[in-house]
Design brief:
With 225 residues, this protein is an alpha+beta fold. The protein has three domains: 104 residues, no CATH class; 42 residues; 47 residues, no CATH class. The strands form two sheets. The chain has a four-stranded antiparallel beta sheet with strand order 1-2-3-4, sandwiched between helices. Strand 5 and strand 6 form a beta hairpin. Helix 6 crosses helix 7. It is extended and about 75 Å long. The protein starts with 5 loop residues before the first helix and ends in a 23-residue tail after the last helix. The relative contact order is 0.07. The mean pLDDT is 77.
């Protein structure tokens, strides 16, 4: 949650006024195969309503007393991190304490920091420069996500080995299965690469001609089974 939100400021006010208590915790995290011991201080509060967009939307859906649960997380592993403003997590779910929320959010932390933020700031996913047409927006988002995922793959060690193959050689290796003009389908969060013949079969219209390379005939008339 950004620091300029009223909900964040309310949570900070509760902590500064000693109306909610900080607790100290240690945990072990692994980054790039290296283990790191981290120390954090956390505090939390529930029944928060200083988010008008949330409460108004909840009321329009028939929930008159909707509230939020939030916590502050202060990294005190080093003096430098301890001097930084605490991070805040907000949720419609109530956790036992702030540390329990931290552990629950940790598996998706890299998605928020590395993936979602990079898509917004680096790839301009939310700028919507494609107009108001829904189909155009869906197509633009799909292509952006495909390009982003491709870039991420090439940043991995396996991707670096794949990049050394070169695109023309890679295309020759895959042309036998997919043909010279494969189609990329993106549906319900999943994507696949298919030959046009496969795509037409799925759509119920068998192709009259094929772009796939012809399979060579055996050199003898009765091949073994």
């Amino acid at each position: 949650m950004p620091q300029d939100r009223l909900l964040y400021q309310d949570l900070q006010g509760l902590a500064h006024g000693h109306l909610i208590d900080w607790t100290h915790h240690r945990y072990l995290r692994t980054i790039g195969g290296h283990k790191q011991l981290r120390e954090v201080e956390v505090t939390a509060a529930g029944e928060l309503t200083s988010w008008e967009g949330f409460t108004e939307k909840a009321e329009s859906l028939g929930v008159a007393d909707a509230s939020l649960w939030a916590c502050l997380i202060r990294d005190v592993t080093t003096q430098e991190t301890a001097a930084e403003p605490p991070r805040a997590l907000v949720s419609t779910r109530r956790f036992a304490d702030g540390f329990a929320a931290l552990q629950a959010f940790r598996p998706r932390w890299h998605i928020e920091d590395d993936t979602y933020r990079e898509l917004k700031e680096g790839w301009g996913l939310e700028k919507q420069r494609w107009g108001r047409d829904v189909a155009a927006a869906l197509g633009r988002i799909t292509l952006t996500c495909l390009a982003f995922n491709t870039a991420q793959v090439y940043r991995l060690q396996a991707g670096e080995r794949l990049a050394s193959v070169a695109i023309r050689r890679l295309r020759r290796q895959r042309q036998r299965e997919l043909g010279s003009a494969p189609a990329v389908l993106y549906v319900a969060g999943c994507y696949g690469v298919f030959s046009l013949e496969e795509l037409l079969d799925v759509l119920g219209s068998a192709p009259r001609e094929s772009l796939l390379p012809a399979v060579g005939k055996p050199s003898f008339p009765d091949p073994p089974t």
